[in-house]
Write the structure tokens for this entry.
Amino acid sequence: MNLQDILPKMSKLYLGRTLDSFLKDVKLSDEEEMREVIIKNIEEFQNKERVKRNLDFLEEKRDISLLNEMILMSLMENEGYLLKESELLSNVEELENQIITESKDEDYIKNAIPEDTYRIYSSVLTTAWKKDETLNAHEVNILTVLRQELGLTKRDHYLIESQVGRFPQKGNKLHSHRQIENSLKNLQTRGLILRFKSDEVYYIIPSEIARILRYELGGELRNETYEQLLNDFSKVQLKQVLTTINLNSSGTKEVLIQRILKHNLLPSAVLDTLGNNDLKDILRALEGARVSGTKAERISNIIDYYENLSSKVISDPTDNRSLYYDYIEDLAARNYKPLRVNKVIDKDLDTEKYFEEATRYIFEEKLGLPLVEMPGSKHSDGKIKFSSKESLLWDNKSIEEPYTFPNDHFDQFLGYIRANDNRVSLFLVVTSKISHESVSQAQRLKAFTETDTDIAMISAENLKFIAENWKDYSNKKEPTFSLQVFNLTGELTRNILVDRMNWAIE
């Protein structure tokens, strides 16, 4: 979610924490004024250097510092960088437990960390912990430099720290909910996470800073996105990756992928095991990706492509249909890759159904129009009362190519119009791109209805444009949407829609 979508759901206390995180000298008491000031200064909020400064937990107490990282890791791994409060508390516990469990697996540690590297780092870490009950800033700095020199990740550090009985706390004791809540407050005062309440309490990393956090904390891709990247490797390439890092390379493609994921290998490290020609082949298969550049640039281009593939976030976590709304253009165009990566669909057959759900969400929630339920199954995808004696019907058609209005659809729509229990003033086709020949078919269908029914076609992109912008065309505090915006025969282009909203919405 973007900052502007989150702020209206935040109360005064939590708005104040966000405001203080980057505008220290501004003191306000009015909630609306606080929201306005935050939005006006959004460039400062999302400033990369500000975010990096606030990610420095060196001077914090050990428990706060560690839990800050655990919380951010949990949020970054979740779709939309968002979790309910209860889910977040549970996720942090699970993450700490997982690291403890992995630290006890000798084979896992042996494969994850080279023997000499493990020996050196564990010796230094054990010595640092022997002194007292915590690590001071100087010791943390030394360990950070040593990790970088040895090529170890922060997770490797936690694994070894768990082995010496110091993760997450002394004796491998898990953190309490109260300790996690203290860290949640700390992260809010740093402007790294936001708290809001809808039906329940949620915590979120706003999309404006999510990418910065991900790269600064070394989490290059979410697991689901990373798995999609590995699925796009050939089996030969997966074997090469595992062989290069001295891991077992036998098994099915799925087994090889899970082996890479299990060992928490960074995407950049995995890609670095491939040659330049392999990287070029991967990039050529990615639409719009830049193929040229150094090996490091090619690796970055691949990671950026997959990160962008899953960079969208849920606009309204309180309504499950909003996920389909967020991806309505991909559903309309049957753009399966982002739909799978972001868990919008489980199978291709879901696409049409969720496209219909997204459209119903727009009419009900975004336009505020009550839908008319229709009995049986032989009817259009939706119906709205146009007037006391007239209806609007609509039907969804997802298609990879521009919509041509084929004859079987012509017959199908004509049947829906004639079978309706009152006059259909408008029949609306919601699809992806619209071809020129479809306009002629729409005009022909209008003539065949014999009821002067207008036949309009609109792209999912333009329908979403209306959903997000129609209120701006009214001067009323509580505007009402007018179906006259759609009421014509032909394609509802962006220019036509803007013109019609200018005079139809009061």
User: Anything to note?
Assistant: The first helix runs from residue 3 to 6.
